């Protein structure tokens, strides 16, 4: 007869086969999943296949069995009985298997990169087709939100912290990273320039920039995420050269990077525009005083990172004071930078010759916190919001309380939110931190559509950030736009409609409006919300919302719901 094959051999062979299919499926379906994943992840992927789908969901954004079925129409049989091993034994084996190949992976990542880069345009095209089929939300409104929701890490803090890893050849470890599209895009950017990026555990990345070989952020990445420009300062500071395509991102205004470039020129860099790329060169940046004509968050962050390796002292006047700037400064200080005054109007940076590795935990997302507060209020529900940082959202919390939302701080990291009566109209004006954040303006407007009177929303930061208002009109909202102001009259109710998201926060406001509306709301182009909110539909569904992500099969046939629980 046939020789007996030891279960461990079958396990090993099966691991490679299933892991290969799963990695391919992940790369096709994920918006930028790093392709430089080698045999290190085979063990953990097998663990996912055995039924621990949440591991795969949290790591790659997809349940392994569901993703393989969706992309390849492949249905996997149970494996534990076939191999004659218990789940515990298989988990232990896969963990040992993964650990034993960790060092090998670090050495081979860069060897795989050139081939991966050649294949990326083709795979990106295929992946985009798959993504375009899953860009809608369907919401049945009118259900109060009840329960507990956990806030993810701040995307706007994680992005500059990831970029800061370019300042050193040592490993930077970041915890509490949100699994959102912009983070994946930044990871791809770092890998494109030669960084090694590993995920040793959920929501943690180890980034090593010792092998950086090129100094360009390509157009295909920058066009989808404006924060890609954050690579400019670190690259020119450490390597003396940087080439970054003019940035894209949300369609909410011009948001030029002139202040970034003017600041780098003040530091001694030569900046030019070549073939649509911003090119900066400098032997070594020189410390100086830089005054920002306008408060700019990414500009402050870019200049702060660049000045960390400059020769001499740099002072950034009229600096942004946002918590995300402070968080970046804390990481840089851990890396050996000498920074004082972060969080104030003037930041002093004394340049050093080199920076080292560090370990850092990203702060909670204050805008996600505010979004869930408005969602609870507009639905008349009661939510406990955990793992947040209330002081980072003081102005918004004060304004929401003024509108009649009851917000109680249970401890340093949690809030209890409910509505004590009708929503009261209350005017608001956006302003740089510590004022009312512009990223909360759209969600606040959605809340005011359910108020008992008339309120005025004034936008002072961006010139084109009322695009969501026209979509809310389709739902029965009463909004009049005049320049930088929107006059919102409270309506008896909103009605479900088909609407389209124009940017990240606009999509969040349409979700909030849809939760309050009567009937069914369809939101198109929700890839915007995926840029900054980690599985918002799953978090909302867990607290009682009737919301699901759907796949649009064609314009004529409508949409088919996609189960997100196991797919």
What does this structure look like?
There is one protein chain. This protein has 567 residues and is of the alpha+beta class. The strands form six sheets. It has a five-stranded mixed beta sheet, with helices on one face. Strands 2-15-17-16 form a four-stranded mixed beta sheet. Strands 4-5-3-14 form a four-stranded mixed beta sheet. Strand 12 and strand 13 form a beta hairpin. Helix 13 packs parallel to helix 14 and helix 15 runs parallel beside helix 17. The radius of gyration is 24 Å and the shape is globular. The two termini are 41 Å apart. 49% of the residues are buried. The C terminus is likely disordered.
Keywords for this entry:
five-stranded mixed β-sheet; four-stranded mixed β-sheet; 567 residues
Secondary structure layout plus pairing:
Layout (H helix, E strand, L loop, with lengths): L6 H23 L12 H8 L3 H8 L3 H9 L7 H4 L3 H14 L1 H31 L3 E5 L5 E5 L4 H10 L6 E5 L5 H12 L3 E3 L6 E4 L7 E2 L1 H4 L9 H8 L1 E5 L12 H9 L3 E5 L2 E5 L7 E3 L5 H12 L4 E5 L5 H12 L3 E3 L5 E5 L7 E4 L4 H13 L3 E5 L7 H9 L2 E7 L2 E6 L8 E2 L11 H8 L5 E5 L8 H7 L4 E5 L2 E5 L8 E3 L3 H13 L3 E5 L2 H4 L5 H7 L3 E9 L3 E4 L6
Parallel strand pairs: 2-15, 3-14, 6-7, 10-11, 18-19, 22-23
Antiparallel strand pairs: 1-23, 1-24, 3-5, 4-5, 7-9, 8-9, 11-13, 12-13, 15-17, 16-17, 19-21, 20-21, 24-25
């Amino acid at each position: 007869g046939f020789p007996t094959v030891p279960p461990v051999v079958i396990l090993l062979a099966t691991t490679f086969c299933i892991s290969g299919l799963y990695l391919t499926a992940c790369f096709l379906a994920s918006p930028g999943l790093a392709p430089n994943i080698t045999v290190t992840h085979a063990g953990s992927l097998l663990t996912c296949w055995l039924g621990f789908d949440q591991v795969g969901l949290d790591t790659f954004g997809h349940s392994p069995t569901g993703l393989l079925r969706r992309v390849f129409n492949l249905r996997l049989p149970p494996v534990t009985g076939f191999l004659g091993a218990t789940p515990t034994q298989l988990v232990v084996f896969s963990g040992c298997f993964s650990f034993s190949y960790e060092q090998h992976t670090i050495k081979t990542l860069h060897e795989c990169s050139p081939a991966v880069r050649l294949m990326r345009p083709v795979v990106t095209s295929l992946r985009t087709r798959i993504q375009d089929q899953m860009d809608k939300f369907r919401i049945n409104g009118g259900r109060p939100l009840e329960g507990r929701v956990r806030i993810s890490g701040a995307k706007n803090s994680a992005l500059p912290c990831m970029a800061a890893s370019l300042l050193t050849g040592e490993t930077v470890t970041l915890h509490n990273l949100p699994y959102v599209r912009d983070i994946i895009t930044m990871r791809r950017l770092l890998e494109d320039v030669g960084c090694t990026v590993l995920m040793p555990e959920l929501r943690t990345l180890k980034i090593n920039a010792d092998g950086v070989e090129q100094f360009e952020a390509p157009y295909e990445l920058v066009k989808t995420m404006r924060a890609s420009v954050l690579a400019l300062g670190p690259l020119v500071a450490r390597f003396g050269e940087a080439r970054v395509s003019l940035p894209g991102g949300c369609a909410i205004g011009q948001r030029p990077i002139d202040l970034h470039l003017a600041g780098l020129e003040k530091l001694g860099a030569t900046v030019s525009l070549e073939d649509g790329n911003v090119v900066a060169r400098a032997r070594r940046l020189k410390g100086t005083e830089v005054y920002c004509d306008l408060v700019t968050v990414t500009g402050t962050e870019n200049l702060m990172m660049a000045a960390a390796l400059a020769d001499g002292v740099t002072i950034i006047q009229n600096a942004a004071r946002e918590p995300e700037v402070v968080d970046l400064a804390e990481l840089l200080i851990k890396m050996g930078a000498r920074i004082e005054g972060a969080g104030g109007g003037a930041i002093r940076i004394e340049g050093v010759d080199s920076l080292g590795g560090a370990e850092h935990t990203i702060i909670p997302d204050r805008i996600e916190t505010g979004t869930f507060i408005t969602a609870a209020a507009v639905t008349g529900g009661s939510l406990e919001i955990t793992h947040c940082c209330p002081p980072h959202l003081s102005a918004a919390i004060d304004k929401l309380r003024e509108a009649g939302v009851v917000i109680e701080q249970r401890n340093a990291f949690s809030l209890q939110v409910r509505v004590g009566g009708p929503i009261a109209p209350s005017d608001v004006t956006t302003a740089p931190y510590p004022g009312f954040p512009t990223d909360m303006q759209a969600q606040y407007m959605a809340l005011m559509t359910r108020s008992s009177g008339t309120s005025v929303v004034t936008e002072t930061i961006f010139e084109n950030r009322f695009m969501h208002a026209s979509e809310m009109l389709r739902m029965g909202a009463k909004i009049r736009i005049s320049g930088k102001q929107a006059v919102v009259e409270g309506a008896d109710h909103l009605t479900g409609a088909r609407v389209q998201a124009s940017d990240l926060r606009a999509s969040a406001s349409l979700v909030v409006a849809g939760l309050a509306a009567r009937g069914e709301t369809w939101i198109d182009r929700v890839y915007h919300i995926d840029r900054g909110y980690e599985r918002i539909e799953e978090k909302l569904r867990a607290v009682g919302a009737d919301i699901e992500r759907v796949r649009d099969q064609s314009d004529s046939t409508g949409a088919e719901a996609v189960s997100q629980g196991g797919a």
